[in-house]
Each structure stands twice: as C-alpha cells, then as structure tokens.
Design a protein that fits this description.
The structure holds 2 protein chains of 2 kinds. Chain A is of the alpha+beta class. Chain A has 9 helices and 24 strands. In chain A, helix 1 packs antiparallel against helix 2. Among the domains of chain B are: about 120 residues, Cytochrome Bc1 Complex, Chain D, domain 2 (Orthogonal Bundle), CATH 1.10.760.10; about 70 residues, Cytochrome c-like domain (Cytochrome Bc1 Complex, Chain D, domain 2). The chains are: A alpha+beta, B mainly alpha. At the A-B interface, helix 1, strand 3, strand 4, helix 7 and strand 7 of A face strand 1, helix 3, helix 8, strand 4 and strand 5 of B.
Chain lengths: ~450, ~350
C-alpha cells in the first residue's frame, strides 16, 4: 500500500473467509453457545483433514532395552576431554551452534528492497523480557550505517536561548539513567488486520523488542540550551542517515522526563542497526518516533507533518479520513508458546508463555483462554513488571491432546483491556494498517501443529 | 494592597524559576557549545506546513520532468505510477478532490491502493521529504530549484497544477489550497500522548475482564490456506531445536510432523568468501537497490544476468561502467562510478554464477 511500508504485503494471498465450510461454522457456533467443551474439536476436524496422525514425539524419554539411556551410559567427549579456552570468537561470544534457527527474518514479499524493509524478532524463541541486541527487530527507511562516534554530533536549535552542539563524549559525561522499555513498530501485526496472512508469531508480532536503554533525559539537554518549554509544544527529532528521518515529539512527554537520548542498549552501545551511536527513546510511542542516528532536535510551536506522519504512519478510518499524529501503542499481548508454526511434542504438561505490554503504563493482569475466549484463567506475571516495558506471563496447562484455541488478554494500569478483533474493527475497519492490538488466537490441532487463526 | 503583594511575590517566584531553568547551563560546566549559524543552516532543513524553513526558489513542471526522468523515474516510473520498487505516488485523485480537499476514493473499500497524492494533505511534506531524502541512493543532492521543479512535476501529474506551472516560495501557499486530500486528516483520537491537539481522551474500545462463560466472537474468520503453508520458508528451521515445541516441517504436507520434529537441525552450507565479498560490495555500492541477488527488482536479478552472460566478466565489467538500456527492458541503468577493483570483483562473481 505505502511505498516502503511493511504493511504493503500485496503478495500474501488472502485466506478465504469460507475456508471452513458454512455447515461446519454453523455447527461449531451452535455448540459453542451451548457451552460444549469439545466444540473446537469438531470445528476443525475438517480444516485439519489428513492431519490427525500421531503426536510428535521429539524427545520421548523411554528407557531403552539395554537398561539405560546411552546419553547417560556412554560418557561423551565433553565429559572425557579438554574443552576450549577463554576469549574465543575474537573476544565476543556467540550463541551455541545449536541455536542457529533463532534468527531475525524478513517476511517474504513484504518489500522489494532490503534497505526500506523490516526484519522480525523471533519471539517464539525468546525468554524473559529482554530482546538480545542481535535479535532486535529492524526497520530501516534508507539502509543502515555504522557511524564513527568520534564524528557524530548532536544539535539543538529552534526555540532555544542558545542553539548548541554536543559530541558523544559530552553526552556520555552527563548524568545517565538506565531504563527498560519496549519498542513496537506502529505497523506490528498490520498484515493480519483483515485476515490471517502469516504463519508464526515472528511475522505477526515480531516488530516488538525490549531492551535496557542507557542515556540522558532529553529534558536535561533542552534545559541546557535554554529551550522555551512553555511555547515550544512540539519537538522535531531528526536522524543523521540518508532518510534524515523526522518525527514530531510532544513536549508534554519530554517534560515527563521519559524521553531519552540513548547510547546504551543491554549493557553495551546501541547496535548499528538500532541507531549507533545515538537514538531517541520515546517510551510507549511507536518505533518510528525513536529516531536512530539522532543528529538534531528542534523546538517549535507547531507540528511538522513529516513524511512519516503525513503519508505513512497515518491510520485510515472507515469514513475515508486519516488519523494523523497517532503514536501510542495501546495495551497488547501475545502467547509465544504454543504459537503458530510450532508443534507440541506430546500430550501432558506445558508452560503457556507470552508477552504483554502497554504504551500507557504497567501491565496489571493477563488472562489466558484455551477454548477460544469462553473461559479464562489469570496468568502469572513474572518480575520485573515495568512501565512501558515487555512483561512476561506464564500459565500451567495440561494439554489433553484435543484441539484448543489459545488466546491472551492483557489489561494495563489505566484499566484498559486489550480488545477483540471484532471490537477493534467496529471502530477502525480493516484498512488502517497501524496499531493493531487485537487479541491473537492460536489453534492447537490434534496432531500438535499450531495454526494462526482469527475469530471475529 | 494584599493582592498587590501576592502578585509581586508570584512574579518574583516566576523570575527565580526561569533563572533556575537557565542555570542548568552552569550545572554541567564544560559540556556542549553554541552552534554556529553556519552549522545550524547546514542541518536545519525542515519545512513545516506553514512553510517555515522553506528556502526561496522556483522550478517549472518542464524542468521537473527532466530531473524526474534522470533521477527518479527508474524507481517511480515516468509518471510516478510504478509499483516495481515502491508504491505508486500518483493516481486515484480527481478534479472534484482538488475542489473539495477530500479524496473520495479513500472512502471506497474496493479501491485497490493508496497513492502518495491520495493521502498527503500538506504540500510542505512533499517538498521537505524530497529535499531531505531523495533520490533514494543519493539523498540531499538535489538543488533547491530542482526540488521545486520535481514537486511541480508530481503535482502536475495529478492535475493539481497545470503543465505550464512554475512552483515557487511565493505561490506554494496557493497550491496548498488545491491539495486533493488537504481536509482528509484528523487529530480527534486518543492516540497522541499529550493534549496538544485537544483530541479524544477515551480509547476506541472498551473490552472487559470476563472470566467464565464469556461471549465468544460470533464468526470464525480465517485460517492460513494450505497453499501458503511453506510461503515463509520451512518453519522447522525457524524454531529452537530444544524445548517444549519444535517448528512444523512445512516443506512436507501436514501430518508428517512426527519424524520431522526429531530431525536434527541441518546446518546450512556456508557461503564462499568470494560470494560474501561480492555481496558486501553490492550492498556498499547500492547495486541491490535495483537488482536482487536472486530476483528481479527494477533491473534483472544477478542470477538472471549470470545465466545470460556466464563467463563474460569483461562484458559485464563494461556494462557496469557504462550502464545501458534495452537488454533487459526499457528502464535505463545509469553508468556506475564505483572503484575499478570493486567493479571487477562484482563482474567476476556474476560471470561465475552469482552464487549466494
């Protein structure tokens, strides 16, 4: 749809709405309304035809005939030999070679170039709330650069007493703060606005990541320059790359002290793909405002209508108007295991796990349903539960081998509850691309394979 | 009297407050310096909807067409209509839209796409963005008058200005009054964090926490169809090989999961270092903006070129240096100015098969 936008997934074919037979749908919902536990089982028998083979048994753990597991009985090389030395890999450690499947990936057909494109974080393989820096999702508008920090400058101008420039050395001498925050692209989950379009949580929700960022509150720098904090209601942030990305940031948010000029990410410097050596951190606001390779902020009394707030990142409403300056990432959650494209190993106990977040504050609760939203149980929120950061949730579940539809529903500390697709579409239609925070459904089939499905 | 004293006190407090804020400058001695006028002028290039920041200048539609054909058309098409690399810029607007300031097609759910000129409400946005970020591989290289002319050309394609028009800082505010979607934006929503736009304060939806026998959604809407099963690559290779799950082996029809899930991760063959070097050069010199390694973009994929011109490294080197048109289609490839050694490495890599 938009020239350089991930939502323009013209190549992904639509799932037909009548993929399940009409009779099947009727029957399912008749039974669902009467509250039958196994309605889903019947519903998807047709859809999963031919799939009802034995469960996957990846790591069944039977005792072999010889009376013990050869992995125990025969001592391996690593128990009987000398291991490797320190400081391998040129002094920077890498994940195990057995973890090679855990990669950030492009979604095929989404964009024609790799420089105005997206790679998605593998949420299905992550634990806790921190996204490893090398797996952080990427969104570039005109390619990325590895900029020499000794040559990078940061400028403040506009409605200030004294326009100023800073070197990286100077910014890093100022009092620093470190905070965990999520960053989510406004177009995360965009391809599923109308119907199911992609198979896994990496492609549906992988444009969200969470890091500990270290930097200086922007307000500190604005005060140094003597900014007019009263009349200067809008601040333009501008990148130093070819796209010179610009976005309008509200002064009210900067005054709260939350907006940071950051150089640190997860204990080291920002990765080049994430804006090394300097980027803006705008907690709760969509990723496009977190300007990378930040070179300048300008204080002004009017918004700027930059390309990415006047042509893209605007939300088309059913009446044909676009919502402009729509930045907040509202409360949202997703189950990451079991999730689309995965196969459960066997019947029995599982730890349902997932992530919840809100651009307006802390996560207050997350509920999980395994029957398509009819009954819910409160999940455990793992610590830390931080404002405008990812929150990990877990829930015990014994899978009986029958089909199940798994959903999660988050509530934040403003009281707002994550909406269903039906509720969201009733207001915004299906063409708004951005800010899809609907409840996600995953169908666990009898054969253990999990599918992305939508109820609406 | 009393009131006078109170007012005086308040103004003293206000004064100290202001001084305190500015005193930040002394709080961090030695950090930061005043930007020079020359420095600010070089970087402060933004143009606001009220045209603050717009430099004086002008450009005609005719000149814009020349610039367009030389620097823009290979990505956007001669008439801004192309969707080969980016979505179309022009199309979908009407004379009525120019009159009303609302693009009627935006209300149609059956309308297939949204072009830039259907969406953009502010002509300043076009000027600002073309000036700061275009052409895509050489941003910030257009002159001020070239930017005016390109904006004029684009607007003429959508019949916002006539073909003999010259756009300038003097008449751009008049042109704004003809932008087809100038009345098409709203800030009446609750998705901006401050009160600067006086938007809505209540969110769009009001879901509730129901725990038992809740109303489920009335319709099963969609499922990924079978033909898309492997469209994102084999999902077996996109999940960790240990844990409470495996990835589904989507290279096989559904139902074959049991064996697939136990198969060890097959390590992929490492790229040869010659391929790695060549592909790094393609990135460095922005070749892959127009050519995919294994697919056509604007120009042919390197795999296609390799097939057609296998072994002809010298021919390919010549083509890289001189550019050309007609072998693969009517979109011209400009002559490339990369270093000889790099061009040769790339030509050799293509001639020997363009492997990944």
């Amino acid at each position: 749809m938009t020239p350089d936008h991930p939502a323009s997934s013209g190549r992904v074919k639509k799932a037909p709405e009548n993929f399940l037979s009409r009779e099947g749908i009727k029957q399912v919902w008749a039974e669902s309304k009467s509250g039958r536990r196994d309605f889903i089982r019947n519903a998807f028998a047709a859809a999963a035809a031919g799939a009802a083979v034995p469960l996957a048994t990846a790591q069944g753990n039977p005792v072999p005939a010889e009376g013990g597991d050869p992995n125990i009985l025969n001592l391996p090389e690593h128990a009987t030999g000398l291991g490797l030395g320190v400081a391998q890999d040129d002094g920077y450690g890498k994940p195990s070679k057995y973890e090679r499947n855990v990669q950030r990936r492009q979604s095929p057909g989404l964009t024609q170039t790799t420089q105005a494109s997206v790679s998605f974080a593998p949420l299905q393989s992550l634990f806790g709330i921190v996204t490893p820096s090398g797996l952080h999702f990427e969104r570039h508008h005109q390619g990325w650069w590895d900029i020499d920090p000794s040559k990078h400058r940061f400028m403040i101008n506009g409605m200030v007493k004294k326009p100023m420039v800073f070197t990286m050395d100077e910014i890093m001498r100022l009092p620093a703060v470190s905070r965990f925050h999520f960053i989510e692209c406004g177009a995360n989950t965009a391809v599923d606005w109308g119907n199911v379009a992609v198979p896994t949580v990496q492609y549906t929700h992988g444009m969200v990541s969470c890091s500990e960022f270290t930097g200086v509150p922007l307000i500190t720098l604005l005060e140094l320059a003597g900014a007019d904090l009263k009349n200067g209601k809008f601040v333009l942030a501008e990148g130093g790359d070819g796209s010179a990305m610009t976005r309008t940031i509200p002064m009210s948010l900067i005054l709260s002290g939350e907006v940071l000029v950051a150089y640190g990410q997860n204990g080291e410097m920002l990765r080049p793909e994430n804006g090394y050596p300097l980027r803006l951190i705008v907690p709760g606001i969509q990723g496009v405002s977190w300007v990378k390779w930040l070179r300048r902020v300008e204080v002004g009394d009017q918004p700027y209508a930059a390309k990415d707030e006047a042509i893209h990142y605007i939300d088309l409403m059913p009446d044909g108007k676009h919502r402009q300056y729509s930045g907040i990432q509202e409360c949202k959650s997703v189950v990451t295991t079991p999730s689309g494209g995965q196969v459960l190993l066997d019947k029995g106990f599982y730890n349902i796990t997932g992530l919840a977040w809100s651009g307006k504050g802390k996560i207050k609760r997350v509920d999980v349903s395994v029957d398509g939203g009819r009954n819910w149980r409160a999940a455990r929120l793992e610590t830390p539960v931080l404002s405008k950061a990812l929150t990990r949730f877990n829930l015990d579940w014994v899978w009986d081998g029958k089909p199940a539809i798994i959903q999660s529903r988050a509530q934040d500390d403003t009281g707002f509850v994550q909406p269903t697709y039906q509720q969201l579409r009733a207001v915004r239609g299906t063409r708004s691309i951005y800010h899809n925070n609907a409840i996600q459904s995953w169908l666990v089939q009898e054969n253990g394979e999990v599918k992305n499905v939508q109820l609406s | 009297m009393f009131n006078f004293r109170k007012a005086l006190l308040a103004s003293v407090l206000l004064l100290t407050g202001a001084t305190a804020a500015w005193a930040q400058a002394d709080k961090y001695p030695g950090l930061g310096r005043q930007a020079t006028a020359k420095e600010v002028a070089k970087w402060d290039i933004d143009v606001r909807p009220d045209f603050k920041g717009l430099p004086a200048g002008s450009g005609s539609v005719a000149k814009g067409q020349d610039v367009w054909e030389a620097k823009c058309a290979h990505c956007h098409g001669i008439f801004g209509e192309s969707n080969e690399v980016f979505s179309p810029l022009v199309g979908g607007t009407t004379a009525d839209d120019v009159k009303n300031g609302r693009v009627a097609n935006l209300s149609r759910t059956d309308y297939p796409g949204r072009t830039t000129l259907m969406k953009v409400a502010t002509v300043s946005t076009l000027w600002d963005y073309i000036n700061r970020a275009m052409p895509w591989t050489n941003p910030k290289t257009l002159t001020t008058d070239e930017v005016y002319s390109v904006v004029a050309y684009l607007l003429s394609l959508a019949n916002v200005v006539p073909e003999d028009f010259t756009l300038s800082d003097a008449n751009i505010a008049e042109v704004q009054k003809r932008m087809p979607n100038r009345n098409g934006m709203t800030t009446q929503h609750a998705m901006w964090p401050g009160n600067e736009f006086k938007g809505a304060s209540k969110p769009d939806t009001r879901n509730v926490v129901c725990m038992k026998d809740c109303a489920t959604e009335p319709k099963l809407a969609s499922l990924l169809p079978d033909f898309a099963r492997n469209a994102h690559g084999n999902l077996l290779e996109q999940n960790r090989m240990v844990g409470q799950q495996r990835g589904a082996d989507t290279s096989k029809p559904e139902g074959q999961v049991a064996q697939a899930a136990t198969a060890p991760a097959a390590p992929k063959a490492e790229s040869s270092s010659a391929s790695k070097d060549a592909i790094a050069l393609l990135n460095k010199h922005a070749c892959i903006a127009c050519h995919g390694v294994d697919k056509k973009i604007v120009g042919p994929g390197f795999n296609e070129v390799a097939k057609k011109h296998a072994g002809k490294a010298d021919y390919l080197l010549g083509k890289i240096r001189s550019g050309g048109v007609g072998v693969w289609g009517q979109v011209p490839m400009p002559a490339q100015t990369l270093p000889e050694a790099d061009a040769k490495k790339i030509a050799d890599w293509i001639a020997s098969g363009a492997s990944k």
